[in-house]
Amino acid sequence: MGFFIETLVGGLTSGMLYALIGLGFVLIFKASGVFNFAQGAMVLFAALSMARFSEWLPQWFGFESLILANVLAFIISALVMFLLAVVIERFVLRHLVNQELATLLMATLGITYFLDGLGQTLFGSDVYSIDVGMPKDPIFVLENMFQGGVLLNTEDLIAAIVAACLVAVLALFFQFTATGRALRAVADDHQAAQSIGIPLNRIWVVVWTVAGLVALVAGIVWGSKLGVQFSLSTAALRALPVVILGGLTSVPGAIIGGLIIGVGEKMSEVYLGPMVGGGIEIWFAYVLALVFLLFRPQGLFGEKIIDRV
Amino acid sequence: MSSREQQIGDVLLDLQNVSLAFGGVKALSDISFNVREHEIRAIIGPNGAGKSSMLNVVNGVYTPQQGSIVFDSKTFARMSPRRAAEMGIARTFQNLALFKGMSVLDNIMAGRNLRIRSGLLAQALHIGPARREEIRHREFVEHIIDFLEIQAYRKTPVGRLPYGLQKRVDLGRALAMEPRLLLLDEPMAGMNVEEKQDMSRFILDVNDEFGTTIVLIEHDMGVVMDISDRVVVLDYGKKIGDGRPDEVRANEDVVRAYLGVAH
Fold this sequence. Notes:
The complex is a heterodimer of chains A (about 300) and B (about 260).
Chain A: H1 2-32, H2 39-61, H3 66-91, H4 101-123, E1 139-141, E2 150-152, H5 154-176, H6 178-188, H7 190-195, H8 200-226, H9 231-235, H10 240-246, H11 251-276, H12 280-295
Antiparallel strand pairs in A: 1-2
Helix pairs in contact in A: 1-5, 1-6, 1-8, 1-11, 2-3, 2-4, 2-8, 3-8, 5-6, 5-8, 10-11, 10-12, 11-12
Chain B: H1 2-7, E1 11-22, E2 25-36, E3 40-44, H2 51-59, E4 66-71, E5 74-76, H3 81-86, E6 89-91, H4 104-110, H5 120-125, H6 128-147, H7 163-175, E7 181-185, H8 193-210, E8 213-217, H9 221-227, E9 230-235, E10 238-243, H10 245-250, H11 252-259
């Protein structure tokens, strides 16, 4: 039983990490109706910026404090993501107003490769580390209930809490503020949104900045776990099944989707793995997403698409 | 009729020698006409005459190559959608452009966008003034919902409503802006007779109760002749007629454009 709970909690916490990345997809999709392929590249870019600035700043200004370096690096990286949003709006999105969605999708694909390249040019292409001082020692809980207790990874636990807070804030923002309503309006119809005086350009900068900040948080959490390296960009695509499951338009959906995938992966690895051979963790999520696409293409919480024929 | 003429005021919108081309295609050539305060002004013409382009120029979606737009005594070479909205020009769309995923209420509330003053943080935290403001806007929107008789569908996502009702929500969203000038792009397209009668009534009531000036594009001649004060006729991007409905009906060019020439 102890082992089962351990697997479950492990799945839930790693699920929250997927959710964090899925959230970035959802944000941009909600506000522009575009599936942003570049989300993974943004995570890598933000993580690189964070890792390198926290390394460079103490060298440049000759201080030792790890906390100061991290705080400053975070602020600078946040600014970098904001600038990135401004540049993307100015040079890409602004010219694609009222265009086909496929065009916008291709544009984000272009942004992906550009960002992958730019990140490595600016920040280097080695493996870097982010150390934000998260406790790495696992803790044991419930020792009197089960033999040996339950082993928890504190790092994952903290990451999960951070993700949960972020999600709560964003969900409130989208549902209950006029700006959130404006964002949803832009997602549904550019022209109509313009006609009631919603400035598309500003809305896009806001959304890409928020998605950039989410990418930064995801980058820090993943980066400190796995190291900052190119594979981060592709690892983000593992969050794809999460949004398919949860629905591309739902913030809570991204979370639930993340949790289901996280738990599903771990459980299947542990309990089904021995039967079908290892490695099930790698493809389980995609198969689950495929099944969902067949029976519920809008995801668990997505808006049902009704088209007149 | 005479009392109606007394209500109609000064020129609110004046289009002067507007020309618009897409590449080599001339959508509008040298069009001039004006719209008076409190008036219902119709733009008619065969398909491809440039009616929607005309609205898009007023609304700031298209930039004319020549000519100017005078609104409320201010002259512009071009409008932008944002400025048009700020100056009190609202519009509806020929092919519905509603926020399909959102409820009827949210769609109409979105029309209040420019009038919301509280900051983002205040809204998010729902503190005092922001909350009172939201309630005030909500009251106004409820008034519109009552007016358009769509109370029962408040929380329904608009994508699920039948076409005629979606058209009403589109009108409601424009009304939420409290516009001075309302542009209606084929408000009755694809409607049955009953729905058309309803919509005609709403348009007349909006004009009457809120004093809103209305420019509408419409294909149904019966409706146009019934509700409009003056009519502009476009054909192949040129203005071929302008005047009261009975004058326009008697205009030979107009008859020819609609019925073709007798050989």
